[in-house]
Amino acid sequence: HRDLLGIGQLERHEILFLLDEAEQWVALNRQRTKHSDALAGLTIINAFFENSTRTLLSFEIAGKRLGADVVNMHAAQSSVKKGETLIDTAITLNAMRADAIVIRHGSSGATGLIADKVDCPVLNAGDGQHEHPTQALLDALALRHALRDRGETADDFTGLVIVICGDILHSRVARSNLLCLQALGATVRLCAPPALMPSGIEGMGAEVFHDFDAALHGADVAMMLRLQTERMSGQFIPSAREYHHLYGLTKARLEKAKSDTLVMHPGPMNRGVEIDSEVADMIDRSIITRQVEMGVAIRMACLDVLTRRARGVEGWGDVA
Ligand code: CP
Fold this sequence. Notes:
- L-aspartate binds at residues 82, 172, 226.
- It contains 13 helices and nine strands.
- The chain is an alpha/beta fold.
- The chain has two domains: 7-132 and 292-319, Aspartate/ornithine carbamoyltransferase (Rossmann fold, 3-Layer(aba) Sandwich); 133-289, Aspartate/ornithine carbamoyltransferase (Rossmann fold).
- Helix 4 (110-115) links the parallel strand 3 and strand 4 (122-127).
- Helix 1 crosses helix 11 and helix 2 (54-65) packs across helix 11.
- The chain is globular and about 55 Å long.
- The termini are close together.
- Bound molecules: phosphoric acid mono(formamide)ester.
- Phosphoric acid mono(formamide)ester is lined by residues 52-55, 126, 135, 266-268.
């Protein structure tokens, strides 16, 4: 593949290849001097049409640690505000001879549209309710490391039961993680109020729950998602207080799952709504900050691997 538009385009061996490639960058990022010249002379444009903290910063840090020149385009300060179309923005970025373009956009499929118009690899940094592939990859890498720290073999997730609980309907993170975790052998349980569960999602092989306690029973991992109120249009949802009562991850609830259930959250968190602080900050169970750490390494791996063909370096073309 030239682009990384979704986990849905990747085979299991390609997912594992990207996770394995990221390990060298995890090691580099833990050193005092975090620098490689792998992408020296290349220009990477991060074009973000939606807000971001983790994804934008980690893509920027990833590109810089690989020696590339990195430029960020924030839609709010761009000519998008003057009525420029997405296609014209894409053509403009392409004319500047970017070597990779990273896009976040509020519309599902927007990254694919841009990929069709440009000559360089496009990486999806989140498109509408569709996919957020690097989030799923970093989540898998964080889980792999957490399991290894416990002395468990974690090349894939066969036998693991993973609950994804929250606003599944609006979540590109849930979709990408469902695809990624299933490809790696896990059983995925999706849990949400009925109004926030996409109809027909069972067809993707997920187990569907509306009762969070039942979903948590015997679970190895609880991945919590926030309510994406900015994407809601008239769905009946409980108040924040009621939502917390029914679907919030509290310490008492976590204790009823398994004694070693891991806690994940892609961020940004709404503490006291979908997750309590005492759970989010649990040193032995929460791997939320590790997810952020792995985000830089995964984005380094994706930028490195996707630009290999243009740099004349073997690797991705052989497996993809
Ligand atoms: N998880 C995630 O995508 O976070 P940001 O919206 O801060 O990038």
